[in-house]
Amino acid sequence: MAGKYVEGEFNIHPMDQFKVEGLFNGGATPQGFADLFMITNQTLWIALTVLAIIGLMVLGSRGRANVPTRMQSVAELTYGFIYKMVEDVTGKDAVKYFPHIMTLFLFILFANLLALIPTSFSVTSHIAVTAVLALMVFVSVTVLGFVLNGVGFLSMFWPKDAPAALRPVLAIIELISYFVRPVSHSIRLGANLMAGHAVLKVFAGFAGALGLGAVFPIFAITAIYGLEVLVAVIQAYVFTILTCVYLKDALHPHH
Amino acid sequence: MATEAATGASSTPGMPQLDIGTFPNQIFWLLVALVIIFYVLSRVALPRIGAIIEERHDGIANDLERAADYRRQAEEAEAAYNQALIDARAEAQRIAAAAKADVQKDIDAAIAKADAEISAQSAESEARIAEIRDSAMEAVEAVAKETALAVVGAVDADMADADAVNAAVAAQMK
């Protein structure tokens, strides 16, 4: 397959970094349910994400110090940040869902940040991952909405303040936008991560091909890397705050 | 060999993200990870961090309360100190006034005594001065009489009548 690329040409494969490959079977990609338990490069980085979260939130808070260590301070800041977000956006009665939202936030945040380590694997750039996260939110919010409000949850789609003639039209638009939510929710995260990492790879390919002129692509990589750090945090934040907003619809559908 | 070529062809040119064959594997491990994270967070990490923050809040509130307490005590102590100062000042003034009155009494007595002595002495002195003056007048009269007698005797010895001269001198001296 390498023979497909002519020697001396730009030899850039920005999408290769996203390939899911088994770690212990010579790099074969998993095929359907037969390879359900295969340990892949993605499995490794998902595991590292879990370990990083445990490291920060469990080991970091191990000292239970009144004057926190650096790690404990970061853990407390993260806790306070998301707790306040849930409280402010969703409401005081939503704090019982705080662990769920914290799980989402920490997983996305750490997956995003670990993906910025060179040669690592970007877990959250995979639509399979982000779609599952978004669908989990969508299904839980919808189920919760009906369980808590019964059929009254449907009143969310019926704009009472609009003129009577417009109401059915608006209701259809509301309904469509409701079902588009998980799509935008998941693609926003996955596409942001994928695009950023692909761009980094493209510039890295330029740097490899330009010899001394590589200074410019390297400068660009540095700048884009900074941007990607920002994107990693912001996308985790956006995903979480949207989850809070959707959850608010389930808890208080009437306003 | 043929299957490998086929999978390679399906994943290499396009987006690996859209390789549906990898989805079950990805989703399986994702769910495993989420379950682990959720249990670790909800059982261990979040209650612990929540408790730490709560404890710190309580501690700070307690410290503030204690500080307010100490402040109140300090204010009370200051008030007591000021009161003591005022009392001491009044006492000092009272003692000073009493001492002043005592001294004044002594001074008055001493002055009265001195006045009495002075007036006694001056009376005595006046008496002596009067005495001296009288004796001086007598001496002047005697000298005048003798002088007059001698003058008269020198002018006319027959006219030197001692009694007449003395009477004339005494009349002149009055």
From TrEMBL, chain A:
Compartments, as annotated in UniProt: Cell membrane; Membrane
Molecular functions per Gene Ontology: proton-transporting ATP synthase activity, rotational mechanism
Any Pfam family: ATP-synt_A
Alphabetical list of Gene3D superfamilies matching this protein: ATP synthase, F0 complex, subunit A (1.20.120.220)
Bilayer-crossing regions: 43-61, 97-117, 129-158, 202-223, 229-247
KW NADP (keyword) present: no
Membrane topology annotation: Multi-pass membrane protein
Database matches in CDD domains: ATP-synt_Fo_a_6 (cd00310)
Alphabetic keyword roster: ATP synthesis, Cell membrane, CF(0), Hydrogen ion transport, Ion transport, Membrane, Transmembrane, Transmembrane helix, Transport
SUPFAM superfamilies xref list: F1F0 ATP synthase subunit A
One of the record's GO cellular component terms: proton-transporting ATP synthase complex
Primary localization: membrane
Domain of life: Bacteria
General function of this protein: Key component of the proton channel; it plays a direct role in the translocation of protons across the membrane.
Family under the similarity heading: Belongs to the ATPase A chain family.
Name of this chain's protein: ATP synthase subunit a
UniProtKB/TrEMBL annotation, chain B:
GO CC annotation: endomembrane system; plasma membrane; proton-transporting ATP synthase complex
GO MF annotations in UniProt: proton-transporting ATP synthase activity, rotational mechanism; proton-transporting ATPase activity, rotational mechanism
UniProt xrefs under InterPro entries: ATP_synth_b/b'su_bac/chlpt, ATP_synthase_B_chain
TM segment ranges: 27-46
Family listed: Belongs to the ATPase B chain family.
CDD domains (UniProt xref): ATP-synt_Fo_b
Function: F(1)F(0) ATP synthase produces ATP from ADP in the presence of a proton or sodium gradient. F-type ATPases consist of two structural domains, F(1) containing the extramembraneous catalytic core and F(0) containing the membrane proton channel, linked together by a central stalk and a peripheral stalk. During catalysis, ATP synthesis in the catalytic domain of F(1) is coupled via a rotary mechanism of the central stalk subunits to proton translocation.
Biological source species: Rubricella aquisinus
Pfam families with a match to the protein in the record: ATP-synt_B (PF00430)
Name of the featured protein: ATP synthase subunit b
Compartments, as annotated in UniProt: Cell membrane; Endomembrane system
Coiled coil: 60-133
Topology of the protein relative to the lipid bilayer: Single-pass membrane protein
Major localization listed first in the record, in broad terms: membrane
ATP-binding recorded as keyword: no
Subunit relationships: F-type ATPases have 2 components, F(1) - the catalytic core - and F(0) - the membrane proton channel. F(1) has five subunits: alpha(3), beta(3), gamma(1), delta(1), epsilon(1). F(0) has three main subunits: a(1), b(2) and c(10-14). The alpha and beta chains form an alternating ring which encloses part of the gamma chain. F(1) is attached to F(0) by a central stalk formed by the gamma and epsilon chains, while a peripheral stalk is formed by the delta and b chains.
Keywords for this protein: ATP synthesis, Cell membrane, CF(0), Coiled coil, Hydrogen ion transport, Ion transport, Membrane, Transmembrane, Transmembrane helix, Transport
